[in-house]
Each structure stands twice: as structure tokens, then as C-alpha cells.
Amino acid sequence: MNFEELYQIKDEIEQINRTYDIFDEEHRLCSKSARVEFLTTVKYIEKYLRPGMKILDIGAGAGAYSLYFAEKGYEVSALELADNNIAAFRRNIKPEHKIGLTQGNAVDLSCYPDESFDIVLMFGPLYHLHSEDDRQKAIAEAKRVAKKDAVLFFAFIGNDMIFITELNYDSNYIKTGDFDQETFKMDDFPFVFHTLDGCRKILRDGGIEILREVASDGVSELMAEKINKLDDEDYETYLRYHWYCCEKPEMLGRSNHLLFVGKK
All domains of the chain, ordered by start, with CATH? Predict the structure, then answer.
């Protein structure tokens, strides 16, 4: 599978599935630079997590977050669409993990009862759902299965930083890149990209009260080579710097991934 073949797939569910024939989600968060996103997201989840809480991980990928919290003793339900991600996830489940893994679609969580979860994570689906109707169905389902006082976490890929990231990889990107030359809206392939204000509108239209907005990885992909060479002590300092500024309004648009914390 390559990008040209992927682009020819018109069925959205099948295209999402085959996207992870190309992208290795199991190892995506392994380097020091990539772990910035993971560690930041975990840090914010843990601000609201309490012993005995039940977690739902919608669009769980290869299970990075589900496995992390299961390792800490939490009961986790995980839903994932892509075959390769499901296979990678299953390889890493230990007998002692309290994980229920289901293959399915974020727009239909009928396998879960109403008001069942204290923490709801929706990180992958909003990278892929093209229609506003599907995005709102997914948010409505996440709200339905969340308890009244639950905290919900949503992740988006930020439109504006992707331009800089792609230019960093390809000096010809300004001439050849897939973006609108007037508006700088990125072409929504193979992922869907949103501006900061666009993310806010999607969540508010879905009845989500936004509690926090976080630049979850900031400039870490741009700085990957340098960050990956840091020793452990300096890496901890970099993380503290990132956490110091990741909620500053002026930093939010300069992040490949955006994390929103909300309540219904």
C-alpha cells in the first residue's frame, strides 16, 4: 500500500483501515521527541483520574494509552477500527491487564451502555472523520457513554503547524504541497486537519464545555533530532519547559497535535 493507492480508496472506513498499513502506529510514540505528545497527554489525563475510575479509549490505535493505564491497574475499554492497530494492540495485552478490546467505529458505540465511563478518550477518530455529521455523531456517542461528571479528552491534528512541519521535511513544499495557496488550508489526506478555532467550534457545537486547551507536542517534531540526542536529565528539563508553555494561548497554534479537555 502506498499513498497513491490509498487515495484511490473511496470508502472512508476502508481508507482509514488501510492508512495504518502505511503508518506504524505501534512505534509512533517511541522516540524521545514523539514521547512529548504521549507524556503530555498522560499528564493531563492523570490530573482528573482517580482510583477505581473506568476509562474508555475510542480510536485506541495500537493501545499506547490503554496499555499504560491498564498497567497501572485501571479497567479500560478500548475501541479501534484498523486491523493492523488491533493486531499490534493484542500482541501487547498481558493476562493481568483489565482491557476489553473491541473492533468498531467511533460513530457507533452501541456496544457500551449509557453513562458507563469516568474518563473518555477520543484521540484517533477526529484525525479521520471528514464530515461534520460524522464528527458530531462521534462526539454525541462519547457524551452518551460518559457519566454525568466524566471528563472527556479530544485530540485533533492542527492545520497551521502542519505547513511548517512539511516545509521542514521538503524545501519545495511551498511550490508542490497539497494546500490552498490563499487560505493555507491543508488537503485533508491522509488525515483531517483543523485550525484551533475549528476545533473549538466542533466541540462547542457538540455540547462540550471546554476546560483546557493544550499544545500536546508543540515543536517537538521540528526539534526531533536535537530532542532525541538529549540525555535523560536534559530531556526532563525540556519536558518541564514544554509543560510550562503548552497551555499558553500564543503557543496553541504551533503544535501538530492539539488536546482538548472537556465536560458534557
Answer: 24-263 (3.40.50.150)
